[in-house]
Design brief:
The chain has about 290 residues and is an alpha+beta fold. The protein folds into two domains: about 160 residues, no CATH class; about 110 residues, no CATH class. It contains five helices and ten strands; from the N terminus they run H-H-E-E-E-E-E-E-H-E-E-E-E-H-H. The strands form two sheets. Strands 1, 2, 3, 4, 5 and 6 form a six-stranded antiparallel beta sheet that branches.
């Protein structure tokens, strides 16, 4: 931090302006808004940045200059730390006052020739924190928290931000607490309850219900009562992200409440169904 203050006492942090959005509707990589093709970021990448960021801003870069590598401290190979001046276009989320002009530090990936990319005039989405008492300065939440706006579906981004601010937003999942399978009266009938750990301690559980001759059905409940009509979350939603990007790949042995090997095996099998249907939490960010 001493190094950063020496470089620019009026700019805090080592983070990049990021293009991010509120709610993306697919778990797979997002399509770029210009030129087609596959975006270098996924829904999980964007959620990783948007959720902890008090500010989500769209801006246009006016000036970007590389800081002398000898004064920046460690930087990932193939990247450079830069000082950025940008013009605010819109505040997508946040209650802090920000100026028409913004200043911040960022890390950007160098071109294949080892040069800074040409970003002057480019619109970006930025995930950041305010700097107290300085409306024209921000601190990025991660070194790569600046992305070209063309990578982000703004409508989807606004959706993610809306989910984040909703009082009904699913809690942050930190692991599995307990799991128990209860067999039914008929062969192939039963229910597995999986109780989850959350950051705030609020209740969250998954119920997997099996009916003879039917595929298993499951869903997430985030209150004291189990929702009997709960269904798997749609990929590219905050509920999907909370589960797919936080749960362990297999049911932890220590979470099993039953001592019966058959019931333990069924609980593990039902947990595997949940993970298979959630799919992979794909990330492409390099940091």
């Amino acid at each position: 931090m001493r190094i950063q203050n020496r470089l620019n006492r009026r700019v805090l942090s080592t983070v990049t302006s990021a293009a991010i959005g509120v709610s993306l509707v697919v778990a797979a990589p997002l399509a770029a808004q210009q030129g087609g093709g596959e975006s270098p970021v996924t829904y999980a990448d964007l959620a990783d940045l948007a959720l902890p960021a008090p500010l989500t801003i769209t801006a246009e870069i006016r000036k970007m200059s590389q800081i002398d590598p000898s004064r920046t401290g460690p930087i990932k190979q193939g990247w450079a730390r830069v000082y950025v001046e940008a013009e605010t276009k819109s505040l997508l989320a946040g209650s802090s006052t920000i100026g028409e002009k913004l200043k911040y530090l960022a890390d950007v990936k160098l071109t294949s020739k080892g040069k800074l990319p040409k970003m002057k005039g480019q619109q970006v989405v930025i995930f950041a924190r305010p700097v107290p008492g300085r409306s024209d300065e921000i601190q990025l939440v991660a070194p790569d928290a600046q992305m070209p706006a063309a990578w982000v579906d703004t409508t989807s981004l606004r959706g993610l931000l809306s989910e984040k601010l909703s009082p009904d937003a699913p809690p942050e999942i930190t692991g599995v607490r307990d799991a128990l399978h209860t067999p039914g009266n008929l062969a192939g009938e039963g229910e597995t309850q999986i109780f989850l750990k959350t950051k705030t301690g609020s209740p969250a559980s998954i119920a997997v219900v099996r009916t003879p001759g039917q595929p298993p059905v499951w869903g997430l409940s985030t209150g004291e009562l189990v929702q009997i009509d709960a269904r798997p979350p749609r990929p590219g939603t905050l509920e999907w992200y909370r589960l797919a990007c936080s749960l362990p790949a297999t049911l932890p042995v220590e979470a099993q409440l039953s001592t019966d090997p058959r019931l333990r095996q069924q609980a593990s099998a039902d947990y595997a169904v949940v993970m298979q249907q959630l799919g992979t939490c794909q990330r492409k960010r390099e940091f």
